[in-house]
């Protein structure tokens, strides 16, 4: 469980984050959760990049850009709750 989200599948991994599929328990909405391990974000430039990502996604609302629904901050991880792009790998 991450907040009100039940994690179901691992979708992918990168250098700084993992992405998991989950559903919101109250609504049943399926989402992607991008999980940043804070110990990987000690470099100032990396921290700035993640903060910039969050600020930009909060402002964006476009059909071709994944929507950021929520950010959950814990002591060890930072979770970005985002729209799930189903069907194809974004890579």
Walk me through this protein's architecture:
The protein has one helix at 44-59; strands spanning 5-13, 17-24, 30-37, 68-73, 77-83. The chain is α+β, with helices and mostly antiparallel strands. The longest helix is centred in the middle third of the chain and has 16 residues, at 44-59. It is globular.
Q: TL;DR of this structure?
A:
18% of the residues lie in helices and 42% in strands.
Tally of helical segments: 1
Largest sheet: 5 strands, antiparallel
Number of strands: 5
Please trace the helix and strand order, writing H or E for each element. Answer: EEEHEE
Report strand %: 35-45%
Please name the defining characteristics of this protein:
five-stranded antiparallel beta sheet, globular, 5 strands, alpha+beta, 91 residues, single chain
Secondary structure blueprint with pairings:
Layout: E1 5-13, E2 17-24, E3 30-37, H1 44-59, E4 68-73, E5 77-83
Antiparallel strand pairs: 1-2, 2-3, 3-5, 4-5
